[in-house]
């Protein structure tokens, strides 16, 4: 399976291309994917990259002055509903990548014996519980072909961005998720 050219998580073509092409951008989108609409979370990496200028990599973000990074997140329009907390979270995830995976996002799955090990690596990151880890692994498996042994058992069993494969799927997902929650579904 080849990597997609676009992930249809936002209404912005440039943001969709970036999260499909850049491992760190997708991971940052996953970090931001809480208490904001999907489009806001996954357009955040493009805005962050533009505001930072220069290279967009985990080492650079990990080594930034925390106050300077927070200011980038707070710049209007803010990158997230909770810009200070998310600036800290993104920086902590980048530090984790630097400290444990040589700054490489692919280190989260490369060399892993199975999906259980990948899930362990994902949930070891700051702010990544089972929910985010399952969504991220699902996106990696379904859209990028990262399928360590046993990956299927870790797929989300609720409507999620893992189900988005084309333009228009985001709106359909929102409707399915709303109906699912109304029927008593819980993530």
Q: How many individual helices?
A: 9
- Give the percentage of residues in beta strands: under 5%
Q: What value does the Rg take, in angstroms?
A: 16 Å
Total individual domains:
1
Q: Using the coordinates shown, work out and report the CATH topology.
A: Endonuclease III, domain 1
Which residues form runs of ≥5 with pLDDT under 50?
none
The largest sheet is: none
Separation, N- and C-terminal Cα atoms: 28 Å
Quaternary structure annotation: single chain
Q: How many beta-strand elements? A: 0
Topology pattern, helix = H, strand = E: HHHHHHHHH
**Integer average pLDDT:** 94
Assigned CATH superfamily:
Hypothetical protein, domain 2
CATH class: Mainly Alpha
Q: What percentage of residues falls in helices of 4 or more residues?
A: 55-70%
- CATH architect. name: Orthogonal Bundle
Give the overall silhouette: globular
What structural category characterises the helix and strand content?
Answer: mainly alpha
What would you note in describing this structure?
Helix 2 packs across helix 3 and helix 5 (66-74) packs across helix 6. The chain has one domain: Endonuclease III, domain 1 (Orthogonal Bundle). It has nine helices and no strands. 37% of the residues are buried. The radius of gyration is 16 Å and the shape is globular. It is an all-alpha fold and 187 residues long. It starts with 12 loop residues before the first helix and ends in a 5-residue tail after the last helix.
